[in-house]
What does this fold into?
Amino acid sequence: MPNRILKQARQDTMLLNMGPSHPAMHGTIRIMLELDGERILNSEVEVGYLHRGFEKTCEHRTYFNLLPYTDRLNYVSPLINNLGYVMTVEKMLGVEVPERAQYIRVLMSELSRISDHLTCLAAMAMECGAFTAFLYKMKAREFLWDVIEQTTGARMTTSYIRIGGVRADLHPGFDTVLKKAIEETRLVLKDVRGLLDKNKIFLNRTRDVAVMSREDAVAFGWTGPCLRSTGVSYDVRKAHPYLVYDRLNWEVPLGEKGDNFDRYMVRMKEMEQSLRIVEQAAVRIPKSCRAFIAEGMAPAQAIKESRRQRVREDIALSPNLEGSEEARYPDILASDKGYVVPPKEETYTSIEGLINHFKFFMRGHGLRPPKGDVYFAVEGGNGELGFYIVSDGTDRPYRLHLRAPCFHIVSALEALIQGRYVADVIPTFGSMNMIGGELDR
Amino acid sequence: MEEKTILERLRREFPAEVEGAAASPLGEDVVIIGKGALLPVMAYLKAKPEDYAMLLDLTCVDLRGEEPRFEMVYHLFSLTHNRRLRIKTRLPEEELRIASLTSLWKNANWLEREVYDLFGVHFEGHPDLRRLFMYDGFEGYPLRKDYPLRRRQPLIRLKD
It folds into this structure.
């Protein structure tokens, strides 16, 4: 209940309830406004409608098991959430990830970042009345998701980045689809800039609206594009480089004023930088010397054969997801057997493989990081996405805490809309990119 | 003088309150302080020479079976020095109170409400300490270790 505002409200003002089921309140969030005419005197933001007990659930899952829950945090860029969690655990375990897998991770997280920004800006533009821009951006996002879907097998709930590497190698047709997606996204970005950058309606609703000062942004713990729109140059990818970001050429775009328009602009420019990263990474990624095995024994046949004797022939499996070929493992997964799921070919055809498989999944036997606590952060779509994990030496985290970037950003909403008009709530809220999944956990 | 690490400087500034300061095995700076010293230590860290201007995160860990039972964990970040710092302090179960950081950082407001909501820690000096995620009338503190995973709570009545 918005108790504070109910208590404090003046007699002659109007209380207006926005949300939790309001089309402009992206996920589920409720804003109680105290209005004098159209002007907002006070407001109270109420969150928690999407609270699913993520942290409590994780304490009862093994390190391997809880990966799918991280997909559901920021549901427009799930791959980055996977990455943040996986790299935190890898830091505890001290796993070495092969170079090709690192490049795949960079490719995937940048594609997710673009689709994250596209979604945010599309919604923001649509709520300001620019429906065409929304459709254009959604179109571009579809092309990006085609790339992601082809390799990971899913559009949103990917669970693709695994402890020790990635789930499967890139799809054979990856380069073609990627090229198409980059071209289409570039075109859309150009069109959208033409539609919005000098659009009077859009400018009136965003320029000088909800200005955040540099000091306040830092005091509120803002990170990501919202912090950079105020002119503070902090990007986790530059400040604490992880994966191969320090080997690629790209810049950190900054805003000047920290108003809604700057937040829009920084996101637009960041997408261009992400496209640059994707292009470079796609060229530099170490080639896999192992070809896909197209001709071989069918999996069902191999299982049947293995009942009589060990199968020595190659087994044909689809290039991804339905079981990666063991031969490709060295490129995409850590070499240490204890950290990764044993190859399915071995599990199904040899007794040692079966034992390894059971040892990995058996209660109390899986991944067991050493005692201690660790904090690791990656640059998510909204900013610093950090995981704080306390391990007690067992196979499930003793405590897992998520530093959700938009938690800090949304906590500044009350301060930003105070004294503005009701109509300003919409673009302000839209430019923050509130994601219920990671905000409410 | 500059060669001294932040851990050594903190030990020198607050000899009585800093109980331990070391880099964790994974290379993270961790400082353990007494809970009474939280505000002065944080104010010192936020001010200029150290310049930990950002409160990255604030959370709590329930170490059931140990004494004191709760551990507050603060993550600070300095934009100028580009380094993170973890501050920890222990709270006994009988006296679950600690100073609020709302006077130093604005995001402490929601972060502390969250910890109050899920762990029941009271923050002294917080302007508006209420539950954040759970509803009014929710019983217990769900992230404590003695709260069962699947406990059900009765439905509450709709308010007018």
Residues 6-94 of chain B form a domain with the Beta Polymerase; domain 2 fold (CATH 3.30.460.80). The CA atoms of residues 36 and 136 of chain B lie 30 Å apart.
